[in-house]
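re: that chain from earlier
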Amino acid sequence: MDKVAMTEAIIVAKKSKNLSWEQIGEAIGMSPVWTTSACLGMNSMPEDKATALCQFMELPAEVSQALQDYPTKVWDQAVPTDPLIYRLYEIVGVYGPTLKEVIQEKFGDGIMSAIDFNMSVERKADPKGDRVVLTMDGKFLPYKAW
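^ sequence. v structure.
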């Protein structure tokens, strides 16, 4: 089973069982963001988490193995058209250089890791309309000189 078929099987099971990513992540003891990313094929799951997910969602062993396989992290290089994804792309386009400047001013010449990384999505009540709170927490990796 490849990652595409794996994702399709997980989405079908998620919908048929009326589960949320929050419930799935909680069932396997992982964050909903990381769990979703692995289920969409962008991260590999350790064997115990893949097994737990498949037991919880009543999925076959082939899905567990596909969850454990190392992904090839490739995504569409065109500007996304889904409004939510486009807005994130727009944020990086507009604020990317600013974030780079501020991060490097505070930390030095380097990058924020997307490997040693955590992310959370929260909902914050606001009288003008609820707010999305997206927190990215990555280790700073300085560039080396040799």
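The helical segments are 3-16, 21-28, 32-39, 47-57, 61-68, 83-107.
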